[in-house]
Design the sequence.
C-alpha cells in the first residue's frame, strides 16, 4: 500500500490524490444482484474493497469465506495475502528444507509471525529480527528460537554471527536496509534471500539507497537474491490455504490481530504499521459494527 | 586466480607467498608411472598444474584430451572452465530462452566471447559491454547484436536503456561495480543476473564496496541475482562439452587466444588480463616449446 501511494515505478498501478485507497477487506453482503451471493454471506477481497465503509463490488473480484476452514478475521491474516506470502515465499522462492537456519526481518509483523511458524513447522531454526523486546517475546511465544532487537544491537552483523555461527540459509527480507546489510555478511553457502519488502527504504522517496554492496559475498556463497511478489503465484493459493488451514485446525498455527476501530482511524493504523507500533496483522473495523 | 592470492574469504583455498600459483594447463606426458598414460599423450587440468614449466601430477587430477573432439588449445578455452562457465551459467543459472535480451559484461573476455555466441545460438539478442572499440568490433564478429563501450559512455544506464528499451532479461555479470549498477536500472520483469565475477571490485582489497543499491528494482522486477561458480556443476560438464564441441565442429562457435611466451611472462599476462589488454583467452606457452 505504501508503494501504491508513491510516484515511483512499481509492480502495480498507483493511487492518486482523490482516489479511494486500495485495500483488502472482509465484507458482509448487504444487498446482492448476483445469484451467487445473498445478504449475510461473508466475502473477502485482498485488494479491491478500498478504504471505505461500504463498497459496491463485482462478484468476480471477491471470494466466498468458508468459516469452517478458518475463523472470519483469519481470511485477512494467514488465509489472506500475508499467509500466502509467508508460505509461498518460504517454500517456492526460499526453498526451505528441514535443518535450515531461517532469519526473518519484521518478524513480529503480519507476514513474519506466520513465516516464523512455517519455518518451525518445516523443521528449520527460526531467528526473529524485530524492533522491541516486547516483539521478541511475542516471537518466542510463536516458536522462534531466538530474537535480535535491531534497534538496540550495536553491531547487528556481529549479533547475527553470534546467534548463527554457521550462517543464514534462508533470509526472508521484509525490510531491505541495514538488516539486509547485516545478514549479507552472514550467508551460508547457497543461501536464498527472499526480497519481499523494502520498508526500510520507504523514506528515500526515489532517491538512490547508498551503502555497502555485497556482490562478492553473494558470489562466494553462491547465494540467490530474488524479488518475490505473491501475486505471481495465484496458481499456488489453493495449495497454500489448504496447508495453512490444516496447521491452524491442528492447533499448530497461532495468529494475532491488532484491530483499530473506525474508518477515520485507518490512516493512523497504516502509519502505526509503518512505524512498527502494531502487534500482529493490523486490521481496521469499519461500517455499522465499528 | 585473483581471488586465490587475496587474503579475503573465498570459495577456494588461498595461495600464500612462496607457494606455486595455481592454474590450469594442457600438458604433454613426458614420463608416466600410470598405465593409463604414455609419453606423447596430452592431458588437461583446469587448476592443478600451477605456474611452472614441468609438473609432477597424479593421473587422478588430469583428463585425457581427445583431439578429435576439439583442437588442443580449445581445451583451455571453450572446452575448459571458461566455456563450461559460459554454457552452464547461461543455461542453468540464467535459464536463457529464445527471445531473451542477454547483456554480457567483459564481453570480449574468455567467458564473454563464448557466452555471447551461446546466447545467439539459443535465439537470444546479445549485447556486449566492454572497454574499447576494438573489442566491440571483435564482439560483433562473434555475432553480438550490439556493443557498448563502458569507458567512453557518459551515462551507461541510459545507453543500455536506449539499446534495450524492453529491459534486460539475462545479465551475465563478470565485473560487478558500475556496469552492474547500470544494468540493475534496466531490468525486465523476472530478470536473471548471473554473478560470475567481480573483477571491478578487485582493487577494494577487502574494503566495503559503497554505492547505490537496487533492492527496490529487484523487488519490482521480481529479479533473481545468483552467485555462480562452475565448480558446483561438475555433473553437467559432459553435457556442456558435448554441446560446445558440436557447435564448434558445425562451424558455429569461434574462438580466439592471446598467447604469451615463457613462464617469466606469466605474471605480466595475468596483469594484462586484469587490465583488459588481452583479446580472447589469455594463455601462456611454457616448457621446451616456449
Sequence:
Amino acid at each position: 500500500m505504501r508503494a501504491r501511494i508513491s510516484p515511483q515505478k512499481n509492480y502495480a498501478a498507483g493511487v492518486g490524490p482523490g482516489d479511494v485507497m486500495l485495500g483488502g477487506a472482509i465484507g458482509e453482503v448487504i444487498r446482492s444482484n448476483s445469484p451467487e451471493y445473498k445478504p449475510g454471506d461473508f466475502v473477502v477481497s485482498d485488494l479491491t474493497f478500498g478504504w471505505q465503509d461500504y463498497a459496491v463490488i463485482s462478484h468476480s473480484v471477491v471470494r466466498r469465506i468458508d468459516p469452517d476452514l478458518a475463523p472470519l478475521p483469519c481470511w485477512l491474516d494467514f488465509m489472506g495475502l500475508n499467509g500466502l506470502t509467508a508460505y509461498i515465499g518460504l517454500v517456492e522462492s526460499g526453498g526451505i528444507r528441514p535443518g535450515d537456519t531461517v532469519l526473518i526481518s519484521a518478524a513480529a509483523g503480519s507476514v513474519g509471525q506466520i513465516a516464523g511458524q512455517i519455518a518451525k513447522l518445516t523443521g528449520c531454526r527460526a531467528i526473529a529480527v524485530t524492533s522491541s523486546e516486547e516483539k521478541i517475546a511475542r516471537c518466542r511465544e510463536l516458536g522462534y528460537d531466538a530474537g535480535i532487537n535491531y534497534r538496540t544491537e550495536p553491531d547487528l552483523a556481529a549479533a547475527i554471527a553470534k546467534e548463527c555461527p554457521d550462517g543464514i540459509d534462508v533470509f526472508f527480507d521484509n525490510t531491505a536496509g541495514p538488516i539486509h546489510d547485516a545478514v549479507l555478511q552472514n550467508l551460508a553457502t547457497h543461501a536464498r534471500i527472499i526480497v519481499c519488502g523494502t520498508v526500510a527504504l520507504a523514506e528515500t522517496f526515489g532517491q538512490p539507497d547508498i551503502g555497502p554492496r555485497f556482490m562478492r559475498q553473494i558470489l562466494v556463497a553462491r547465494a540467490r537474491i530474488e524479488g518475490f511478489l505473491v501475486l505471481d503465484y495465484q496458481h499456488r493459493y489453493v495449495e497454500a490455504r489448504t496447508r495453512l488451514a490444516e496447521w491452524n485446525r491442528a492447533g499448530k498455527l497461532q495468529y494475532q490481530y491488532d484491530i483499530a476501530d473506525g474508518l477515520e482511524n485507518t490512516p493512523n493504523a497504516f502509519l502505526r504499521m509503518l512505524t512498527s507500533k502494531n502487534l500482529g496483522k493490523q486490521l481496521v473495523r469499519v461500517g455499522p459494527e465499528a
